[in-house]
Specification:
The protein is of the alpha+beta class. It has 4 helices and 10 strands. The protein folds into 2 domains: about 90 residues, glyoxalase-related enzyme like fold, CATH 3.30.1900; about 70 residues, 2,3-Dihydroxybiphenyl 1,2-Dioxygenase, domain 1. Helix 1 runs antiparallel to helix 3.
């Protein structure tokens, strides 16, 4: 969907997050990550809302219409939120300037810790939060840029302990 002001650049992957309530999700992403709403549209079925957001330097679309209708013209007709599925099928990673601050901000906005922040062997300070809608966000700050050999050496050391 190319809506003026929220067109994705060619070749850009734009995640579409399915949530029970797009309005609540938009508020959470604004508070937790500083996302900006670019476009809002109620669903033609009246079942929900469709929202385009800018999150850091990426685009993200949110839909609050979960579908289990095989006869839908949109294809399989099945879209479910992680809450409906009982788990998430992907992790969204965001590299931020201050991961400790962003992690706290997400927790304060209503996320829960899924993996505590840790200085990882591959050079990142890294942790996961689960948002109130079940999506997992890997938050990181690059502390060191390492060669593949350095990562391998550190990984062997970590897993031999």
């Amino acid at each position: 969907m190319a809506v003026k002001g929220s067109e994705p650049p060619e070749g850009t992957i734009v995640p579409h997050l399915v949530v029970p309530d797009a309005g609540q999700a938009a508020k959470f992403y604004e508070t937790a990550f500083g996302a900006v709403v670019l476009y809002r549209s109620p669903s033609p079925t009246g079942a929900g809302e469709h929202i385009h957001m800018r999150l850091f330097s990426s685009l993200m679309w949110i839909a609050s219409e979960e579908l289990d209708q095989p006869d839908r013209a949109l294809g399989s007709g099945f879209l479910a939120s992680p809450l409906q599925l009982g788990g998430s099928t992907c992790v969204f990673q965001i590299n931020v300037p201050d991961v400790d601050q962003t992690f706290r901000q997400a927790i304060n906005a209503g996320a829960e810790t899924a993996m505590p922040l840790t200085d990882m062997f591959w050079g990142d300070r890294y942790g996961w939060v689960r948002d109130p809608f079940g999506h997992i966000w890997a938050l990181c700050t690059v502390k060191e840029v390492l060669s593949p050999e350095e990562v391998q050496t550190r990984m062997r050391k970590v897993y031999s302990e």
